[in-house]
Amino acid sequence: MGVSVLQKIRWYYNQRDLLMNYVRKDLKERYVGSIFGFYWSVINPLILLAIYTFVFSIIFQVKFGDSAGLGQSALYIFCGMIPWMTFHEAVGRSTGILLDNANLIKKVMFPSKILPMYIVVSHFVNLFIGFGILVVFALLSGRSINVYYLLLPVYVAAQFLFTLGFSWVASAVNVFIRDMAQVIAQFLIIWMYLSPIFYSVEAIPEEIRSYAYLNPMTHLIEGYRDIFLNETMPSLAGMGIYGAVAVVVLVAGYLFFTRNQHAYADVL
Question: Is residue 2 domain-resident?
Answer without folding.
Answer: no
